[in-house]
Design goal:
The complex is a heterodimer of chains A (130) and B (290). By secondary structure, chain A is an alpha/beta fold. Chain A has one domain. Helices cover 36% and strands 15% of the residues of chain A. Chain A has a 4-stranded parallel β-sheet with strand order 2-1-3-4, covered by helices on one side. In chain A, helix 1 runs parallel beside helix 5. Chain A is globular and about 30 Å long. In chain B, strand 7 and strand 8 form a beta hairpin. Chain B is elongated, with a radius of gyration of 25 Å. The chains are: A alpha/beta (130), B alpha/beta (290). Strand 2 of chain A pairs antiparallel with strand 3 of chain B, so a sheet runs across the interface. Bound molecules: iron/sulfur cluster (2 copies). The site of one iron/sulfur cluster has 13 residues of chain B, from helix 4. One iron/sulfur cluster binds next to helix 2 and helix 4 of chain A.
Chain lengths: 130, 290
């Protein structure tokens, strides 16, 4: 093994990003715990970050990397408008197409997980929910 | 941008040459590391994850000697966690971080004695912003700035006063969000027609209160100050100032702590004039560029 993780660029599966919202309690605790459990227990590769807001304030390079890499991206966080604004704030505007944002602030954990793990992309053009 | 450096990233490697963790332990390890402020990647199985930047701590239950690892950038520390309890692994990650500073979520800061800064700052909905610069004129704390292309940008998020959403009330286009606010549309919820009307009304309210809200603040402070010189009672003057400012706080949703922390009326005046001049210059430059 020389690079981590392997097989990073040509994988057709969507990349998965989970936001823990660790610096404030705007996402219900039980929802974020259940979504994390579902992702971790599936054993499928995913990225988890403590708090997208905090990373955007720091302009964390990970956000630029996530936004610029090819291939679909699914995000479990909060309101899509806020999440897109945060990536822009970090100098890493998300592409209009190919990004699905699932809202743990309003949706049930089962629905968020179903969206994150669905075989096919969401039907709305940008995939943002709602 | 805040000054805290990028914290190390943790990768849990479960690809070839490593044993996957039990599902429950994996979940617990992720939760604990996230709650301490670390980003964590699960890598290895059908990986579509991003190669890490910055300092990386790689964990795995490796078959034999841990592999040699290179990351795109930064130092790498590899740790075999075979047979380790989750808590032990978390402590090992903390030890691997060494003396490197990092921002901490509040509970972790309380437990470890570290620093915490709540990420509270305005986030702009670029699809709604019309570059009118009202927010820039309004903010006294240099949170806003202007990009090289003459567009509004949030330049100094850490200067923002935690829990104060006041500038979102002056935006006529409901383009300013605070994702950690408790209600929509300020929290990023979709904007309805009635929100637009209501926000416009709020701008009008601040106008009714005296042209602009800081002008009113100055006036009220000056009144309180002259009363202070007459009555020579600091307590009374302060009480009067508080009473007057409460009305403004209610209209613009400015927390009392923020009002209490405002600089002197003269300083407010100086900063407001400076911000207004910057906004005017940016507006003119943007117009000239189109
Ligand atoms: S993006 Fe949303 S869910 Fe994530 S930290 Fe910010 S407010 Fe919380
Ligand atoms: S007040 Fe609103 S529309 Fe005007 S520049 Fe600021 S964010 Fe943009």
């Amino acid at each position: 093994m020389t690079d981590l993780p392997p097989n990073t660029t040509h994988d057709p599966q969507p990349r998965l990003l989970y936001c823990r919202c660790a610096y404030a309690q705007v996402v219900p605790e039980d929802v974020k715990d259940e979504v994390l459990a579902g992702l971790a227990e599936s054993g499928r590769a995913f990225e988890a970050v403590p708090d997208l807001c905090e990373m955007a304030a720091r302009r964390d390079p990970q956000l630029q990397q996530l936004a610029s890499e090819a291939g679909p991206l699914r995000i479990a966080a909060c309101w899509p408008r806020a999440v897109r604004g945060l990536f822009s704030q970090a100098g890493a505007a998300l592409p209009k197409e190919g990004v699905e944002i699932h809202n743990m602030r309003t949706d049930a954990a089962a629905d968020v997980l179903a969206g994150m793990q669905a075989a096919s992309p969401a039907s709305s053009p940008s995939g943002d929910t709602p | 941008m805040i000054a805290t450096p990028t914290p190390p990233r943790v990768v849990l490697y479960e690809g070839p040459g490593a044993e996957p963790m039990e599902a429950a332990n994996r979940r617990e390890l992720f939760a604990r590391l996230l709650d301490r402020g670390y980003a964590v990647t699960l890598a290895g199985q059908g990986s579509s994850a991003t190669p890490p930047l910055a300092t990386v701590i790689v964990l795995g239950r490796f078959h034999g000697a841990p592999p040699a690892v290179e990351s795109a950038e930064g130092a790498v520390c590899v740790r075999d966690i075979t047979g380790e309890a989750v808590e032990q692994t978390v402590e090992a990650v903390e030890a691997a971080r060494g003396t490197r500073q990092m921002n901490r979520p509040p509970a972790a800061a309380a437990a470890t004695g570290g620093e915490t800064w709540k990420p509270w700052f305005p986030v702009i909905d670029m699809d709604r912003c019309t570059n009118c610069m009202q927010c820039l004129s309004f903010c006294l704390f240099d949170v806003y700035g202007v990009s090289e292309t003459h567009h509004l940008q949030v330049e100094n998020p850490a200067n923002c006063k935690v829990n104060c959403p006041a500038c979102s009330r002056v935006c006529p286009d409901v383009a300013i969000m605070f994702p950690k606010y408790h209600a929509g549309p300020i929290d990023g919820a979709p904007v309805s027609e009635s929100d637009v009307t209501r926000e416009k009304m709020k701008v009008d309210i601040s106008a009714l209160l005296g042209g602009d809200i800081y002008a009113k603040l100055r006036e009220r402070s000056a009144e309180a100050k002259s009363r202070f010189s007459r009555e020579r009672s600091a307590d009374q003057a302060l009480a009067e100032r508080r009473r007057c400012l409460k009305k403004l706080a209610d209209a613009a949703a400015i927390p009392q702590e923020v009002l209490d922390a405002l600089p002197s009326p003269e300083e407010i005046q100086r900063r407001a004039a400076e911000a207004a001049a910057r906004a005017e210059a940016a507006r003119a430059a943007a117009e000239a560029a189109t």
